[in-house]
Amino acid sequence: MLRLENLQKRYRTGDLALKGVDLSVPDGQIMALIGPSGAGKSTLIRCINRLVEPTGGKVFLGDLELTSLGAGALRRARRRMGMIFQEYALVERLSVMENVLSGRLGYVGFWRSWFRKFPQSDIDEAFRLLGRVGLDHMVDKRADELSGGQRQRVGICRALAQGPELLLVDEPTASLDPKTSRQIMRLIAELCKERGLSAIINIHDVMLAQMFAERIVGLRLGEVVYDGPPDGLTAEVLTEIYGEEDWEATIRKADEDEDAGDDEGGGEVHLLQLERDRLAGLT
Amino acid sequence: MATTAATRRTWSKPPFIRDARLRWTLGLGVALYLAIAFGTLDINWTRVAEGLPRAEAFLGAFFPPDFVTRWDAIAEGIYESLWMTVTSTVVGILISIPVGLGAARNLAPKPVYYFCRGVLAVSRSFQEVILAIFFVKLFGFGPFAGFVTLSVATIGFYGKLLAEDIEDMDPAQAEAVRATGAGWLQWLNYSVQPQVMPRMIGLGLYRFDINFRESAVVGIVGGGGIGATLNTAFERYEFDSAAAILLIIIAIVMAVEYTSGHVRRWVQ
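^ Those are the sequences you sent over. The predicted structure of the assembly is below.
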């Protein structure tokens, strides 16, 4: 259970990015965080693991209050929160295996990590994760040799290698094509279910959010303006979150998409994707 | 607005300095200064003309280069220079790593940053020859003074470039490793080091190259090495031995440059 209480962030420039957000995410729930650029989505998830220091309010992970932790305790707490990034954020000159094992850094001592002598159990787990995402034949490839979708799957493995309770996911599909985006989102959703993880997923793509999340939270100018099920996203709600626009197409398409099912499917899905891209370009 | 849209609108690139008076004053000032500076240069063409045949005789004395007569002294000088180069490059780089980390704005807190930038500024503000004169006075003639000189110069060079490379790194990769709960040293090892390493290896080899060439100069003011041998050869008017030394220096510099090019391509 993750709980945010009146979470605030004021940047040094004076911009109030988060205006007292109250939110709780039960265990095992996949929550999508949508909202226009600059709404504070990125700031919000970074305030949870304190990559960005919040300036007010509290964050609880279980019973642990994260906002008051000292440096060492914060590092231990970060192990419980895996993070997946926009543009993957893999260390490009390290190998796939090293990137995945870097998820274990919080658990091993400095010299072990320096000599890359991780415990056998960590290596087993890394192989299992890479096998799960279909990349166990690429362990010694350098991260910058992989395609976008492959890189993001390595990013997912790195986050899961931490053995987290919670995934913080920041725009996982921002630089992926529509098909790969779906695959990545499906993978994240499946892995969360398999391991009983909760997840907060920042995402621009309303349709993907509706397809894969159980709950949608809409953020605008640092405030929660919608919190409810995916099918509650009506034209009025989207207008409230993003501003005036013709939303009818977006909503209809989401419903049909779920019927259409798998992305391996025929031309219909492909057509829908094309149309969705066109719409995305217009908004 | 409607009327201006109908007329033809002209455009020219806005001048870099907007104020026309300032622009012309600066331009004329620079031109005037250059004219005066060249006027005071006072080139004596007869002396230039006399110098030319002298250069011919001088260069003629270089040939054929004599590797044999003074070979022992030359070999000793080369060994000393290579020893000086290797040790000063290694020691200089080792010291410049903590200094460079401290001088990176995105890593170090403000006081540490200013302190390390200060250290770099001091070690960069003096040219090797001036440092060498100073250290020869401190430690006496010989290669130790040369070693200290080159080490200090290496810190300034390598530390500054390391700091700048760290400041230019991709913050997303660093953030991702920080988010795993890694300790500070682990974070350096897993996110900062892989990003800066290839360039730093290249620069290390480049500095090795520079240190070897500088070791020749440093020797002339008393810092030992091949420079001392070269200086002695010139003082004794043994231009053929001097030519041999110069050729060896050129060969070694070329060899180092060739190797460093290969290594740099390999580590990319």
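Residues 259-271, 276-283 of chain A have pLDDT under 50 and may be disordered. Residues 178-195 of chain A form the longest helix (18 residues).

Shout if you want it in another format.
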